[in-house]
Amino acid sequence: MTDYPSLHLLIGGDKLGTDGRETRDVIDPATEEVIGHLPCASKEDLDRALDHAAKGFRIWRDTPADKRAAILRKGAELIRERADDIAQILTREQGKPVAEAKGETLYAANLIEFYAGECQRIYGRTLVRPDGQSARVEYEPVGPVAAFAPWNFPSLNVARKIGGPLAAGCSVIVKPDEETPAAGLAICQAMIDAGVPGEACQVVFGVPDDISRHLLGSPVIKKLSFTGSTAVGKHLAALAAQDLKKATMELGGHGPVLVFDDMDVDHVLDKMVPTKFRNAGQVCVSPTRFIVQDSIYEQFRDGFAARAKAIEVGNGFDQDTQMGPMANARRPDAIEAMIADARDKGAKVLAGGERIGNQGFFYAPSVLADVPVEAEIMNEEPFGPVAMINRYDGEAAMLEEANRLQYGLAAYAWTNDKARRQRLAREIEAGMVALNHTAVSAVDAPFGGVKWSGYGSEDGHEGVMACMVPKTIHETL
Ligand code: NAD
């Protein structure tokens, strides 16, 4: 097994370790063992990173697009070569099954490779003007970006945070989550080894609120990019707004899944149950509220519960494990409280509803049925291995429930009726809609939400353009 690496900041290409710095412990969520000590950046470290980011921006912006593309492509290649090691480190710090960790890391490589191509697909346009005049629109990188990535996808989230800015020609200071630092560091190290200047791709850690206030308080930083909860997102968006910084906010979700009675129930269950429990449900686009049509309700509910009970939960390194522990001690506490509240309000617990064992942050795959909409779990993102299944009597009621919340990230619907699929695609309020499909993420498609799920996109062409600003040049020739 790959050893868990020693941890450091990455500032101006230098690895700065724990010497003389405050530290935080990194915990294996399957065993609760301390596996690493993470240095926290001092104010001086952050100021150095900001100086480097300003320099790195000029160096990287002026690097020709084809060279930037070649470097990013090489970075993707290095991530692929190192994917087995990165996956083991990731499972150690985050808990998910090692095969899932490897899949995530390879996806991160694919994303960086897609972004490499985008370096050479940034176009301006010429505006028609009378003789002797010209006007053209050019796109410029916005400037140094401060990016904050969460713990649920430690390698992919960091690739998302750095990929768009680097493709656009920006420098980036990224703060991977302090609980899952090593996989993100490995992604950034691969980019530096591939030739990204150390000043253009830096990594810091610390107390999240101190780091974000320091970076967003600096005029050097021109853009905020955040993935995390809606509550923290609102706080950071307000900080960025004080200095009118551009922002991309990927926030919480509460994925509705509409299941109509023209579908084969087993087919939908085979697709959606593994999607629900992937990464122990700690996924912003996780399917969460199952909105099921009357006549198939019992079959769907009971089939879901039976499949949930059959899921093998264990250490992510065990071959048989289908679902690992939750990533930190807060998650089982939060799920337990939400399920207790739902139960008190009348929900039926058909599977799970309890922790597993007394070591590690394990929680059983859980299924709740007939859950009153007043229950907290029907309104707040559970971010855990729990599905809520309720019965509705037709399309209008199902759609109303789907759009009831302020969240609008991912939504899913299953129906064989093509005209209905078209109506749903138009009516569902979400940034991403999957129709008879489980995936809402693809490297070449924008990923992001509406309403309280945030604004701006990552991935796709939009992920690069989100890091650029237009400039119009009006000229008399
Ligand atoms: P949290 O809301 O405090 O933190 C969420 C993320 O934001 C973490 O990565 C954290 O380090 C970061 N963060 C918190 N305060 C910050 C600040 N002031 N500046 C910069 N970064 C900051 O709590 P949590 O317990 O880690 O997660 C709880 C909730 O967050 C979950 O229930 C879920 O709703 C949401 N979450 C969403 C995603 C996602 O992919 N959208 C990922 C992780 C967590």
Automatic annotation (TrEMBL):
Keyword Oxidoreductase applies: yes
Keywords, sorted A to Z: Oxidoreductase
Occurrences of domain Aldehyde dehydrogenase (ranges): 22-473
CDD domains for the chain: ALDH_F5_SSADH_GabD
Keyword Oxidoreductase: yes
Family, as annotated: Belongs to the aldehyde dehydrogenase family.
Protein known as: NAD-dependent succinate-semialdehyde dehydrogenase
Species per Swiss-Prot/TrEMBL record: Blastomonas marina
